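Entry for the shared binder. Reason: the reviewer on the internal report wants the predicted structure included alongside the sequence.
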Amino acid sequence: MLAILTQLEPAIDAGVLATLVAAVAPSTRSLVQLERQLGGTGACLAGGQAGGRLLFELASALVAVGARRVRVPTCATCGQQRQLRYRQPAGMVCARCQPSVAQRRCPEQRHGRPGNRGSCPACRRARADQAVLEALTATAGAGAVDVDVLAGLVARAAPRVREREQLAGWLATHPDALTCGVSAGPLALVRLLWDLHAAGVTGIVRARCVQCGTARRQLTTLAPGGRLCTACVLRNHPEPCSRCGSTAAVGARDPEGRAVCPRCRRRDPATFQPCHQCGTLGPVAARGQHGQPLGVCCYTTPARACGGCGQIRPITATTSQGPRCQACYQRPARPCGICGELDLIVRRARDDSPDVCRRCYRLPLARCLVCGRLRHCVRVAQGTPYCATHMPFTPKACAGCGQVGRVAGNLPDGPRCQRCFERARSRRGVCAGCGQTRRLFGPDPGRCATCSGITWQLRCGACGIEDRLYADGQCARCVLGARLDALLIGPAPSPQVAAQMAAVRQLLGTAHRPRSILRWLQTSPATTVLAELAAGRLELSHAALDALPPARWVTHLRALLVAAGALPARDELVIGFAAWLDGLLATITIAADRWLLSMFARTRLQAHLAAQQHRPRRGLLGSVDAAHAAVRAGAAWLGWLHDQRGHTLATCTQDDLDTWLCGPQTAFAVRRFIRWAQRQDLCPPLEFPTRATIDPTQAADADRRAAIVQRLLHQPGISTADRVAGLLVTVYGQHLSRLVALRSSDLARHGDLVCLSRGAHQLELPEPLGTWTWSLRTTPGRTSVPPPPGADGWLFPGGLPGRPLRPASLGNRLRRYSITARAARNDALTEVAAAVAPVTLACLLDMRLGTANAWAEASSGSWSRYLDDLLDDEDDTDHAGEDSR
C-alpha cells in the first residue's frame, strides 16, 4: 500500500504516509479493506471516486498534508465533501441526501404537495409552507413580494419540519403576529421577522424583548408575556465580580467558577489575541470573513451609504431612520441625573448612581500610588489608582530605532514605538534577498517575510500585493479606487461631465498617499460637492464654485479640478485680489473714498497684476501682497485725513503727509496711491522723503556658513527639497520667490552634469547638489495628488494641487536649519561678488548689471579701477624686491 501511495505522491515523505495509513486503518481488518478499495494503482484517489469511510478519511488526510494528485470524493447530489454511504442513480450520496424510508413509502398520491393524508416530511413541510405563505401574503407589505422570495425566507427561518409546523400553527391562531412585535411565539417566528425586515418588507414589526423592549434576534429565554434577550437574562441574575467587586451581569467565569463582569473580561490579558493584520496582542474588536481576530489597532468601521448625506462613509450607528456616518449621527441626549439638563450620557445609571452627562462626569478621586496626591485616577476599583500623569506602562526597546519607551504595537520582528510602528506597517520595497517588491522587515535595505523567516504575511484581497490593509482585507489603494468609483463614476447628465469626472477619478486614484485621500473623502465637505458635480446637480464651472461660501476646502477643490483638467486654469491670485477688493470696499462708508480706492485698485493695481501674470522665473505672490498693502494704506490714509485732520484727498497738505509718515513703517505704502492721485489731478503736489538705502550686509562668519553647508550636505533626516533650497540660498544667493517658481523644465542634464537655467545662461550644479536637484522632478510633494502625466511640474510643490510652495513657507522650513533667507542670500552674494566680475555675476544669477555692480562695490570695491589696482600691486611688489636687495 505504501508503494502505491509513494508512486501517487512522490513529494510526500514515506514516514508521513506510513503515519497517515496507521491513523486511518489502525487494525488489520481495516488495513485489508483499505488495500482492497485502493486496488493496484490507487486511481480511485486520483479520480475522487467514492469507496467508503476509510477511503474518504485517507483522501482527506492526504490533502491535508499537501497532496496534489488526490481528490476528496464529493456527494453526487449536494457536491460537498462528506462520507458517501448510499448509492443512487446519479452516484454515491451522503446521509443527508439519502431519502428517508417514510418519504419513499408516502401514502399520499400527490407526494410532496399540500395534502391531507401524507405523513412524510415532504408532505408535512408542504402543508406548513402553504399555511405560512397564506398568512404572509395577507400582510400588506409582504403581499407585494414575490412568493419564491418569501418561501426562501421561510425555509431559512424554519429549516426543520417541526419548526415550520409550529410557525404555521402560531400564525393561524395569532393573525397579528407579524405586526404586533410580541415575542411570545416560537423562535422560528423571531427569525422570520428579522429576515423579512432585512429583505426590505414593509409593515413588519420585529419581535421585542419583553423586559427592555429592544428588538433583538437572539430571544431564547421564555418569560411571562414573551421572551428575554441575552443581556436581560444576564442582568436579571447579577453576581459580585471576583476581580473588581462590583455587582453586575456575569460576562464569564474564571477556572474556579467565580463570576467575572463583562468589563473585567474585556480587560483580561488571557482573552487577548494577536491582531490578524499587525500582530498586536490586545482585545478583539471584530473578526474577519474567516474568523480571524482584528484588534482595535487595525479595525475600521465598514463604509456604507449614509442615510443622511448619501455618501459612502464609515457608519457610526444604525438608527430607526437608517445608517448614519459620524458627521450625520447625533447620539440622543437624555436628562442627566445630576444637573437635570439634556446632554450626552457618558456613564449609565447603576444601582447606586444615576445617569451622568459629559459635563458632570469625573473620574473617582483616589491617592495616586506614584505621586501620592489626591487626584482623579484610573484603576481605582482594582486597588491600584494612578493619575493620568503616572499611568504605568512597560518600557521596551523599539526594534526599529532602538529607543526604550512606550510600545505602540508589536510586529513579527519585535515591538515598535509609535513612529516606527506607523512607518513599518506601510513599508514596501525591493527585498534585498529575493529581489521582489514586497513588504519589508528589519534594518535597511530590508528583507521580505520569506527571507526573514517570518510567517506573518498580509496580502490585499483585491490586488494581491503585500501592504498595510485598510478595510475588508484590502489595501488603501484598492479601497480608494472602489470609493472613487462609487462617488464619481456613474450615470452622468452628459458625456462631457462623465469625461471630466473620469479625469478627476484618475488623478485621485494615482495619489502618492491613498490614505490621505481616503481621510479627505471622509472629512472634507468637498466630497458632497463632488457627488453633486458627478450627478449633474451642480454645474462644473468656476462660477458655481465662486457661489459657494469662501473656505479653504473650496480653494483646494478648485485646484484639484484644474489639475485634473475638468476646469480651465485661471490666475487665482488676480481673481482673489478682485474678490478681496470687493469685500474691502463694502466696509468703506464714504462714497467718495470708495470711488477713489476702486479706481486706483482697478485701473492701476489690477491692470499691473494682469500684465505680470506670465512673468518668467518669478511668481506673482509678492506683487499681490504689495497691492494689498497699497490699498489698505490708501484706505487708512483717507480715513485718517477725515477723522484726525479734517481734510480730504484734494485738500491735504505736506504737513499732513509728513505727520502720516511718522507713523509705523507700513505707512510708506501709501506712496503708490498718492502718486496715482497726483497723475490724475486728484491730489495737490506732495513730496516724499527719500528712504535711506540699506547697504548689503557683510558676510557672516565663514566658519558658521561652512557649518551650515556641512549640515545640509551630511546630516541625515533632512528632506531633499530642504537640502537643495538651503544650498541654493546659502551658496548661490538665490531669492526664495525665484526658487519656488522653478519647474522641471528649468533643469537639463548633459551627461553626468546637471544644469539649472537662470535667464539666458545655465548654472552648473556640482555633486551631490546636481543629483538631489534632478531627483526633485519625481519626488512627491506635500500634496498627495501628483501632477498630470506630461505636465511641467514644480520643483517645490505646495499644499494645493498644481500650485508651488509659498516663499514664506519655504523660508519657515529653512529656519529649522538656522538659515535666514535674506541674511544668507546677502552673505552669499557678498562672497561671490568679491570673487567674480559683475558681468559674470549678472549672467550666472540672472541679475541686472547695475545691481551686480552695487554688490561688487559693497564687497570689494569697484571693478572699474581693476587695472589701476593691478598696476599699483605690481609697483608695490617691485619696490619690495628692491628693498630686499
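Summary line for the report: The mean pLDDT is 80.
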